[in-house]
Amino acid sequence: MRIGKVQLASGESRTVIVEGETVRLLKSASLAEILHSANPAQAAQDAIDSSRPAVPLTQVRVLAPVDQQEIWAAGVTYKRSKEERERESAGAARFYDLVYFADRPEIFFKSPANRVVPTGEAVHIRRDSKWNVPEPELALVISPALKLVGFTAGNDMSSRDIEGENPLYLPQAKFYDRSCAVGPWITLVDAMPKPDDTTIRILIERDGKPAFDGSTKVSAMKRSFDELISWLGRETSFPAGAVLFTGTGIVPADDWTLKVGDVVHIEITGIGRLTNTIAMRQ
Asked: Which end of the chain has fewer CB within 10 Å, C or N?
């Protein structure tokens, strides 16, 4: 089952179940209420508003599938990411190597819920950066009890030259206005394919033509979902739940950077396609 949030033509926001090219409206206005229940799939089914017919996706605006959840991210979880980070900063190569093999993963805060960009809207590249890339990632949807309840797609926008200049600049490279996109939907745990069958693909279009295309399998990730959730929850509570990006295994060549007007498509098996245009803050 896939669930999410949409805005109707009336301007009303509703939680929905996705059924093919239509959505069924739920009586509950809170996505978290469904996700954090004992049985999210049953709770969603029980909450269907039977007085309203299914609504075509063409008649709604898809919103980011979050309420008040914090967005966090894990890094250096794929070998490819480790190698790229080492090339970014030769002086810090040893630290990235240690993180990849260490028990403790790299975990950092990415975005509050109010800054999350939905599919169909623009993400930003920094004006003070010359090397910017999207990072396509599988994201874990986690309840306040630190239970994995679903999955979604995330775009962890990154300014590689800023991070490469000094690893202590990581927050500036990762956390700025419109640097985080999530969506389009949340696929509940029981409906998600196994990691070996789950492909993460990114396609970047420039002037209407493919400019970069890459893919990886979720099974190429070094760390397990349970491991990342366990570390996230050490000494930190999440009363509203959390979304945890799990790192990227797809990195464009070192001489490649995003440009204003590019269109980024991130598609994950079982979830759908997250699409964002590239803009710059004026």
From this structure: C
Look up the CATH number of the domain holding residue 202: 3.90.850.10
Q: What is the DSSP letter of 117?
A: B
Q: How far apart are CA 179 and CA 83, in angstroms?
A: 23
Q: Where are the beta strands (DSSP E) in the chain?
A: 2-7, 13-19, 22-25, 55-56, 61-63, 70-75, 106-111, 122-125, 132-133, 136-142, 148-156, 158-159, 180-188, 199-206, 209-217, 242-245, 263-268, 272-280
The predicted-structure confidence for 134-184, as pLDDT tens digits, reads as follows 999 999 999 999 999 999 999 999 999 998 898 899 999 999 999 999 999
- The strand pairing partners of 276, in sequence order, are 264
Q: Which segments within 51-105 are labelled E, that is strand?
A: 55-56, 61-63, 70-75
Task: Using a cut of 0.70, tell me whether the model's pTM lies above it.
Answer: yes
Q: What residues have CB less than 8 Å from 105, skipping those under 6 apart?
A: 74, 75, 76, 77, 99, 223, 227, 228, 231
